[in-house]
Write a sequence for this structure.
């Protein structure tokens, strides 16, 4: 089993620390930019193709297996990654976990500790889940408050992702880290890239697209509120 549940790092992310903080808490902690002790090489992966992806249907929060093609994609993923990471995260959904497992098994990547975090899970899309892909005007317009019936808004996803990054930023001040890998999903990746690239326009952020097993390589030096979230945090 790859997940090192007894590892020292995991205890720092257990409850009550591993939670989605309220916006008031996030606002208070990020009144000034939070500067990391050293720059972190942060590599973000979108999981390999799932069975629902293959059928061009909306997955959302459903926990689905990789397709056979997705497993082949994951085998080749290691060629896009570094040979070592201090720390890696997956969501709690099997398509995220399995992508990382196969990449490690096939390429021999070495990782100090691998952790799961539900805050990295794909957003719930409510009644849209299982349906064929279609254009959603609210997403095209960058409406962070829009949520499908019984689904989750991007405002809530941003709250989850910011809570995760705040915990991780504080953790890096206690432990020497230089490389972190995250295996995740389209929705949270959009928000995370928007945060770290300091995007100003929410429509730009929600239009970001990542292919299965695409790797986004960033240098993370600070955490602060970007323009696309300013209106949320100022209300």
């Amino acid at each position: 089993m790859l997940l090192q549940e007894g590892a020292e790092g995991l205890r720092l992310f257990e409850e009550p620390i591993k939670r989605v903080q309220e916006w008031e808490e996030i606002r208070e902690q990020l009144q000034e930019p939070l500067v990391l002790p050293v720059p972190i090489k942060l590599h973000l992966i979108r999981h390999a193709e799932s069975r629902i992806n293959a059928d061009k249907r909306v997955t959302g929060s459903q926990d689905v297996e990789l397709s056979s093609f997705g497993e082949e994609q994951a085998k080749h993923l290691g060629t896009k990654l570094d040979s070592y990471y201090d720390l890696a995260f997956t969501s709690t959904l099997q398509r995220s976990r399995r992508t990382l497992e196969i990449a490690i098994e096939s390429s021999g990547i070495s990782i100090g500790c691998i952790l799961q975090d539900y805050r990295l899970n794909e957003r719930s899309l409510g009644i849209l889940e299982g349906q064929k892909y279609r254009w959603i005007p609210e997403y095209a317009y960058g409406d962070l408050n829009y949520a499908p019936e019984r689904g989750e808004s991007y405002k809530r996803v941003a709250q989850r992702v910011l809570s995760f990054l705040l915990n991780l930023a504080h953790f890096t001040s206690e432990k020497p880290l230089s490389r972190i890998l995250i295996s995740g999903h389209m929705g949270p990746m959009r928000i995370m890239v928007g945060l770290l690239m300091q995007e100003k326009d929410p429509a730009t952020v929600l239009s970001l697209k990542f292919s299965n097993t695409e790797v986004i390589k960033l240098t993370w030096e600070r955490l602060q509120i970007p323009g696309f979230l300013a209106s949320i945090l100022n209300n």
Notes: The mean pLDDT is 89. Residues 154-172 form the longest helix (19 residues). The chain is about 35% helix and 15% strand. The domain at 24-233 is CATH 3.40.50.1240 (Rossmann fold).
